[in-house]
Design a protein that fits this description.
Helix content is 79%, strand content 0%. By secondary structure, the protein is mainly alpha-helical. It has one domain. Helix 5 packs across helix 6.
Length: 254
Amino acid sequence: MFAWVGAAAAALVALRKGLAEGAYVVFWALLPAIAVAVMARDVGPLTMLLGTAVTAAVLRTMQYWPYALLAAVGAGLASATALNVAGQAYLAEVLAMVNPMLEQFRQQGAKINIQAGDVAAVIGVSTCLWSVLAVMLARWWQAVLFRPGGFREEMWQLRLPPTVTLILVALLLLLSNMGEVYRFWGICCALPFIVAGLALVHGVVGRLNLGRVWLVVLYVALSLVGPLWAVIMLVAVLDSWIDFRKRLPVPPEQ
């Protein structure tokens, strides 16, 4: 949690002051992250900080959330690839710690087979997810301090353009056909669709003044009914071409 908040603080500096000052903060934040990776054998804070820095840099430069989400996916896949290529010893250590817990489930009849590539995928997905959340937190801080309501408007308008959707779908299909080692890597590519789908729901509820109870019902349903996540992603894909928000009725002026 502290590593995530620290990454968000570094992202805030990059978003507000620019990439030069943001890089300075990231450099000093890298030192404890590297120490944790070397001494505690935990690369999570390091990959998250680097992913957050890349995502924030793209958002600062392009001022466009879809490209920032695409950068987070790239950071997650790059982290997984680096570990899969040069971190086999580390992945083996993680597997050695996890296998005793998994053995209990296997004894109960569960068919669980975790490989090094799966551990790399978990770290890559975690890098992508926490990078996006850290930059969102930083953007919210920036809005609270300098542009109240700005973050809400950004999220309400967030929509993946067709080009980004096609890139993500192509990556997802490519990874799904690269063999068992990469069977979970495509989850990174699914995360932007989840973010865009939830942003669409928030935007529709907000613009139609439906009340927050609809959002509460949505998140309760998502926590209880797993297939609804697939519906959220499908809606985000359709929104890339249809743009549902443009078809909403204009609310009457108060």
